[in-house]
Design a protein that fits this description.
Elements lengths: L1 E6 L3 H11 L5 E7 L2 H11 L3 E4 L8 H11 L4 E6 L4 H10 L3 E4 L4 H12 L4 E2 L1 H13 L12 H11 L4 H8 L3 H15 L4 H10 L10
Parallel strand pairs: 1-2, 1-3, 3-4, 4-5, 5-6
Helix pairs in contact: 2-3, 4-6, 7-8, 7-9, 7-10, 8-9
Length: 216
Amino acid sequence: MIRVLIADDHHVVRRGLLFFLKTQKDIEVVGEAKNGLEAIDMVAQLKPDIVLMDLVMPKMDGIQATKNIKTKWPNVQVLMLTSFSDKDHVLPAIEAGASGYQLKDIEPDELVESIRLTMRGENTIHPEATTQLEEGLREEENLPHVLNPLTPREQDVLAELTKGKSNREIASSLFVTEKTVKTHISNIFAKLEVQDRTQAALYAVKHGLTEGSGKA
């Protein structure tokens, strides 16, 4: 069972999510929080696998709550579920440690799949949010020069990872085993000093390392 905590200040949103998620045989909603502070307290008590986190909430917003949760309980995944897709919201959320970022207009079945992918440690970012994030990052000026520490094959894996592909899909695309893909991903995390697939994908977009085949 995937244990989910819902954090949203709107009662109707929480009720809607609860009603739908309760129909899923592999998902259990363990609690509901009305703001970031409640979310932190409930994570301490309930130890969920995933927090569905709204961004704008009273007392403490979703970004600050995510930072606190990831600092104290790094194994708890945070999946942002919000109405904002602009880079000023997406980038801080990912940098705070969110494993995924989805918009509230997402289809219910797609949200469930996003929860399952997040549970498996895969990055899930809504296409609209991804587009806004990429455009915003490319508009930034004076980014520090980054010497790319990755081998050409690691860059290939990173490029595929950035597209949201699973280890199995990456292995199929690159004609290697899943074990080899896992090794490459582990090396990528260590070299880029990131903790998960979402942060690795963000790094790739920010520093132009998304093309693979040794291109930087």
